[in-house]
Amino acid sequence: MFDATIFSRNLWKAYCSKQRKMEFIEILDIILFFLTSYERYMGEVHPNVKTKQLERIVSVIDEQDIEPGAYDVLITSYFENTALQTDFNINHFFTEGIINNRFYEKLY
To answer: Model pTM?
Structure first.
């Protein structure tokens, strides 16, 4: 079961673990869009994400030269790509390779 309080606290810890270029609210919006998309496309709540995983995800988001608003297109295209053989977990999407693939397919 998704606990928004625990999730928010863990995300804040992950965000504060080092200096960031992006604002916390931008990263929060991106991750929440992914999680709501996961639920819409997969028909179930995404499994819990550990703080250590969130630290990696936040770093990946923060290191990309992608505008925060573009993630809606990238995430949607990820879930709509029927050729992918994946469980559509957040840890899979937020890798440099997957994000770059979606970016070059949809926005470049």
So the answer is: 0.91
Q: What is the pLDDT of residues 6-54, one digit of tens each?
A: 899 999 999 999 999 999 999 999 999 999 999 999 999 999 999 999 9
- Other C-beta atoms closer than 10 Å to the C-beta of 76 total 16
CA neighbor of 64 nearest in space, from 96, 89, 34: 96
Residue 89 φ/ψ region, left for φ over 0, alpha for ψ in the -120 to 50 degree band, beta for the rest: beta
How is the chain split into domains, by residue range?
4-106
Distances 77 to 14, 20, 50, 51 between C-alpha atoms, Å: 26, 26, 25, 26
Task: Show the tokens assigned to 61.
Answer: 């988001």
Residue 108: pLDDT over 70: no
Asked if 103 and 74 count as a contact pair (C-beta separation under 8 A), the reply is: yes
